[in-house]
# Entry
Amino acid sequence: MDQTSNSYHQPVLAEACVEMLAPAASGLIVDGTFGGGGHSRALLSAYPQVRILGIDRDPDAVANAPDDPRVHVVLGNFSEIERIVRDELEFPPDVPGTVGGVLLDLGISSHQVDTAERGFSYRRTGPIDMRMGSDVPVSAGDLVNELDEAELRELIHRYGEERHAGRIAHAIVAARPIHDTTALAEVIANAVPAAARRAGHPARKTFQALRIATNAELDALSTGLASAIDLLRPGGRICVISYHSLEDRIVKRTIVHGATGCICPPGLPVCGCGRSASLRNLGRFKPSESEIAANPRSRSAVMRVAEKVAA
Ligand SMILES: C[S@@+](CC[C@H](N)C(=O)[O-])C[C@H]1O[C@@H](n2cnc3c(N)ncnc32)[C@H](O)[C@@H]1O
# Structure
């Protein structure tokens, strides 16, 4: 693949990410969503001593790895980050505590959206596929054409937070079989009230829902985040970039929970809860207006950062 990182995907919040991962400048960073490697390339150029283990579910991303001895990119799901770190690196068996930084830049890359045959885009005609990698057994088209109406409504409501989920599910079932992305987008556009057609593309939330369900994205996030935090050494940091509230809620809850210490009522002579914080919450970052102007896909991004504290 001869694409540069920018034609594959323009990294979001790259500067803040590089800055926040500075404590790992001479250690190991796991880039769990390698994509076009934009963040990894920025880290490599800022920190000459860094080593990067990249992970991506998509073989296209793995094929896009830079030719640099400091980087090793593997095909996999970041939900298995602990196993992957163990398998790929010759570290002592006690893997937890070896990693200086983790980056998860969630969702899909521009390369995936812009490749019509991948079926992620409601603007480009392609099969309704949306599988991020060959490990995903069922395509979005299978869900669209095979779920019953109640299951579709629930999926669109839960993963798209779409208030017109009922109307959309009903219209999809009536129009089946639906063979391509733009035909599906048209069915959705015709199902929603006219006012909803004016607030962004009417198929956006349904496509998001189908993509999340197809790839079990939220399960991967919950599992991967917990394992990534376990892997960090004290002082190591995790940066997670989310693009919608379902992702950000999981990240926020995990960090707030990890950063919560003793929860005993004040005045107890000794701690009875046994809790101690494993994380320090370093806050949230959003793209500047100039980044949004240069890269409109960054508009919804939120990066949360936390630091592992000694047990
Ligand atoms: C937003 S892009 C990352 C872009 C990258 N940071 C860059 O600058 O080029 C998200 C990438 O994560 C991958 N991905 C999403 N969920 C994943 C998962 N659970 N495990 C591994 N890779 C995943 C996608 O295939 C996609 O390539």
